[in-house]
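Hey, quick one: can you model this chain's 3D structure?
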Amino acid sequence: MRINMQVEMRLKRTVMKRCVFLILAIFALAAYARAQVTDTTVCDVVRKPAPFDGKMVRIKGTVVVGFDEFIIKDAGDPNCGFEVNGIWLAYPQGTKGKAGPAAMLSIQPAHNFAGKYTAPTRAAVTLDQSKDFKQFDKLLAQTHEKGGMCLGCARYTVSATLTGRLDTVADATIKRDGSGKIVGFGGFGNMNAYPARLVLQSVADVTPKEVDYSKADAAAKNDMMQPAGPGDLKSVLATVQKVLANPGDNPAAEEAQKAVMAFGKEGEKNGVNMAFGAGNEIKGEELGATDSPDGVLFNVSFYADRLQGMALQRAIEHMGDHIVALRTPPAGEEQTFIVEYNAWVITSVGAAMAGQKTLTLPGGYLEWDSTWPADQRNDKMAAALKDFLTNEAMLSR
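Sure thing. Here's the predicted structure for all 397 residues.
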């Protein structure tokens, strides 16, 4: 009996030691995991993105949501001095968050892709859907509803500390062969133009700032054009293609016609896929299952809740112009700044032809106002677009 008690005591001491060891090991692993998170800035990542690929980072920045933007800009220096000055933000798959771009175009290699492609392997990220995240997502999902058409306009920007996995490429520019066919690309976000993407794991220190739309709202106070209803994509596309079927001798209208025809006619297999859906989550990066005349698939998503009626028509014109520009870019006009600039011009042309008095862009920039004197319209549009693309889309020439 005595021997058994001694054995039992030794067993208890051994179990206790193992438990203590296990607890210490867990704390050590947790501390190691925390130590693996690298503190950095948006500008440091944009300056030299490749070394950050796959790393867990913590960044203090300001998140901007727009028509085709879901971007983190640097907290201290929004203009980092590069062609693309922001990091694209994405939620893990299955998050079902409400914030994100109103529209987005992503390029995917088709089954007959002309270049070499290996789908990347990335570590999984689990989002902490904490109270801070829910506040963050709710704030960025609120839209500006006053005045005339305000395309993709968010009510707030949000400054926060963001932790997540960085996916990066050394160069996000599109590569082409001698015939002009796309043989290489690797960026993220809209048009695959951003060299870095943060897949969100957690968010803290959430601070909102309401965007000032007062000047644009004042100009649009008498613009009461009502949306024509949500509609389905096929019928809305057919409507806007019909409106632009006869552009006449108007060069701008001809470009708008090319944009809406880029989606093709119903049943045409031209490599363009369009659907309702949020562009705020990471998607599969595998090779496409179908062929395309271009060797790549142009996948366009429209956020139905934010693009009702005529706003969806403008969105189709805008994204169609992106497709045209990526398929057959004019010489010297492949910079993302220029592609976005031209697409907004086409969107404004569509607004004018539809009888809209005004068109406002995210951030409160008035892009079209029918009361502007005819000889000042080009200059006013150019000034608004330059400021918008620099401050909201984080693009520069």
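One thing worth noting: The longest strand covers residues 196-210.
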